[in-house]
Amino acid sequence: MAIDDARKGPIFISYRQADGHKYAELLDNYLRAGGLVPWRDLIDLPPGETAQRVGEAIEEGISNAILIVTEDLKNSEFVPKVELPALLKLDAQGEPGKPFHLLILNTREKDGAGQLDVDAPDELLALGGLWPPAGCAKERPLKDLKQYALLPTRGELRQLYADLLDARLSDRVSHLADKEVTIQTQTRPAGTARSRLSGVNRSAFTGKDADDPYDLTVRLRQDPITGVPSELSMVSLQQTLPLLVDGLYGHGVEKVRVSAAGHPTLLWAIGAALPTTRMRPGSVVAVDIDTHTTEWREKLDDPASDTNQFHVDWNLSMTEAPQDRKTRAVVLLQVEDRANLKAFDGLAGSLPDYHAKAVVSIRGPKERGGFIDSSEGGRLAKTIMDGMRKLVTDTGIDEIHIANQLPATLSMLLGRQSNTLNLVLYEWGMNGRAGNREYVPLARIQPGMPGGPITEVFPRRRLWRSGEITKFVNLAPYAVNLTRDGEHVHFWPAAAEDAWCFPAEQTEDAYPLAHGEVAVPVVQVAAGDVGKQPPRVDGTGYIVPRLTAKGAGRDDFFFPNQPAGAVEGPMVEVEGLAQYTGGDLHTSQLLKLLTTECPMCGHAAGGMPTAQEV
């Protein structure tokens, strides 16, 4: 493998599957969100003999490699026999200016003191009797390599990413006379190591390097339930995006060209990280994937606004502003009248204390069939965001919730004009319960704030509580007796039948099954939305059956804290209530690894929801 081929390749992840899979998944998401392309066996390995395929992948070209050190690495034969000898050889062959590095992400703590066990990689591999490899002059060849901690109390993923990003940009930018960086974005197809070569408008980017057309490739994975970018991918983007932008500035990048594909929130966040106050108008370009070459940007010589070849219509309604509480506006951005207004009304109804509601429609000239030329993008974005600022100024609202149905290209230009605003962005996704679509909250964008532009990422299900819970109302068909150390504390009687709320169900007869000679009728049941839901009331929480709490996804629904499957009679006796979180357990475990203290910033990842919010 030539070094020139290596610098173009992905970042190889070596790990023990038995207990290293979750760390590899986390690292994979983190690097992809930051624009770097990893190679991981479960995603990139084609059918065939494993050792041969991994060898071919390394020979084809990898730019760097990361060994994830976990306890079960001591039982691995494949890592010390196949992967590490080849990776150590590449590390030793690195040339000045074209370095290949084998790096270590270490999850092993030394003596429980919060310190990294730098001896663990060699010691664990030696327990298997296959380490050090034959012909190696060092007894502990891994100890001298650069190691990064991934411990319960200390995480250095940001530093690892920053070092890999610096290596990538150092190589790419040194070859660019025009100081332009190209970025490909995507959120829908699951990314692989080949993602860096993909894209329907790839031909518009091959002038730099036909074999490696994009300098950075930002990929977010989709949530399997909602279909919008996953919480893990968004938190990874939240942490890597500021580092990515700092890296661009640090390497003297003056222009950014983005192949703008994927969900609009991703492009909005990228635009917010590259505002017009930091990169001059016209220096950040979004290339439309539909037309391959159409470019959306701000024009340096914008004519007066009265020559705009578009119209922005605001349909605004106001309600009485709540006193002494945060106020919100809810805004729909749409092209002409194409968005789902019923779903938007549902979003507005889920937000307590909204003070303003607006439907913003953009339209092109009738004589051009409503078509808006990309050259109008800068003026159009400024017009829309000036309207947002006027809304804040005129009403005094604290935050704007945006259901965005505009193209990704335009969304990036809107992000560049978002300074000083507090925005919550929603995506059009599945609600995961009844199979219908709704607006799903994804991220809070606050350019200029510490940790921004993404200052908060929302879990899969997030509804907006209007205050702290001060009382509970029982809507369950059984009484609830709250006890503490066997002593009675409080009693809620069972709800009347007309107050019960359960998930709706649709049943359909299926073919009968048999138990020996006995026919067993079976029906198929499809769960629907929870019916007869109570209105939201400030300070009020509702006690409901477990299935109701799970199906409704409301943050004011609670259920008796007892094991799943426990029999519910006319009364349940518990010591507390429980509530479903917004995300799934697997994601929650991975997210904990991103909230440990980071030596780069001295605190946990910013913008994570608190336990009370979840």
Automatic annotation (TrEMBL):
This is TIR domain-containing protein. Residues 11-106 form the TIR domain. It holds the Pfam family TIR_2. GO terms for biological process: signal transduction. It comes from the Bacteria. Residues 257-442 form the SMODS-associated and fused to various effectors domain. Transmembrane segments: none annotated.
